[in-house]
Protein: EamA domain-containing protein
Amino acid sequence: MNIFLYASIVLVWGSTWLAIKFQLGDVPASVSVCWRFALAAMAMALWCTARGQSLRLSRGQHARLALLGSLMFCGNYELVYEAERYLTSGLVALIFSLLPLFNIVLAALLLRRPLPMRALLGACVGVTGVVITFWPDIVAFDLAKTGSVGLVIAVGGTLLASLGNMVAIRNSEHGVPVLPGTAIAMAYGALCCAVLVVIRGDRFVIDLSTPYLLSLAYLALFGSVVAFGCYLTLLGRIGIERAAYSALLIPIVALIISHFFEGYEWGARLSFGLLFALGGNAITLMKSPLRKRAAAAVPAGGAA
Structure:
């Protein structure tokens, strides 16, 4: 059962990066993200009801969840969707694998948590991996080039996700229940996206093609609900730190899928970059107090 849960998490969250590609087209990113998390919030709420978990929370908890939803389930995902217009899904997943490193640095800055030397070493190793992978775009940085634009957008999305993690840690400390809180935060994320759609003057449209609808259902139900449920179940069976190592395999799965479905070619630079990026994560995740808190509040860092 543990192997099944672990494999489900890695395969689902590793494949959601490619599924996002099928959401790109005539439908604006904000609209697609809105549909996704409105559907996911309803499914998660039904799951909570079936498990007998109340969705009634205090006003203060709703305020915190609204902030979490705007960061984690709106701004973060909108930037991820946009980044995939410029980069292959596997490369966006690789950049997003730096999330645990962002978490530890922001926790030191915003939550006044200690910043151990192990975390600093992990951050340096992980960032080195991304620099190796994107070295040609970095040395020839130009916002007129798609690689440079995609890199900036993906890093921005990772930063917003990390800020969302900081809010999630505070929510956990204030006793916000995980599953009901996630369902409500997803609903607020969908609402935030809807507000952005109105402000920008976009239209609430939907692509009725089979690839769009199937990918939307997959992202909402499997990527946002089923995988999250598997992750929480695995936490209870093998512990937070061991379950968190799923974040090391997710980018590998995403890059393999990108190779076969998007034609992305592996090379020596990507291999070395991936080795450093995942090595930095491994160093950071080892016996990390922050990871214990964060994993109890939000899903694994490699989720899309």
In short: The radius of gyration is 18 Å. Residues 210-238 form the longest helix (29 residues). The chain has 14 helices and no strands.
